[in-house]
Amino acid sequence: MVCHVASRGNRKHAVFVDDRDRLNFMDVLGTVVERMDWHVLAYCLMDNHYHLLVELSDGNLADGMHLLNGTYARWFNERHGVVGHLFEKRYWSDTVSGEDHLLSVVAYIARNPVRARVSETVFEWPWSSAAASVGDAPAPPALACRRLWELVAENPDAARMQLTQLLDAPIPGEEVREAVRRQLLSAHRSGGLTIRELSDALRVSAGTVLKLMR
Known about the structure:
The structure is a single chain. By secondary structure, the chain is an alpha+beta fold. It is built from ten helices and four strands; from the N terminus they run βαββαβαααααααα. Helix 1 (19-36) packs antiparallel against helix 2 (61-80), helix 6 (145-152) packs across helix 7 and helix 9 packs across helix 10 (206-213). The longest helix has 20 residues, at 61-80. The protein is globular, with a radius of gyration of 20 Å.
């Protein structure tokens, strides 16, 4: 069974403050992988949440997530001198069925940093499996690239090529967003229109205009 799993910080607060936090999380994940006999097919660590794509040997997702989040949270709280729940409620999970669904989740996980505008491309974000999954970076011990390739194509080269094409493809809707952004910036700069005037003309909030222009 393959599951897409995500966990977010309590009240959307950061669960990774710096790279040391992320490195420790990956170490804990490696321990969980060994104990639970998991195959981590993809991952992405953001500031206040993370995503995993995990193939389970049996129905041990709950036990593994309890070990992962519990161990990391205790370390995080001790390091940063805080108390209380680090993660928000229970983790979220969804069963992945079929190759198309698998590939769509791999792409979704990899595109998180681009959607959040913290990375220009999926391959530049250092805290995801994107680059390793196409053979462009070393895979951390917790990541099962070869198992992902087996699920994607008959041989590793074909799998890496397919994944490269998938992750290189533009994010749906981003072309339209970029075109709108350019038009808004042009109207703002050359036409002398204020954000309020643009929002009135488009019949959207000023906040939406600002988001589109970022």
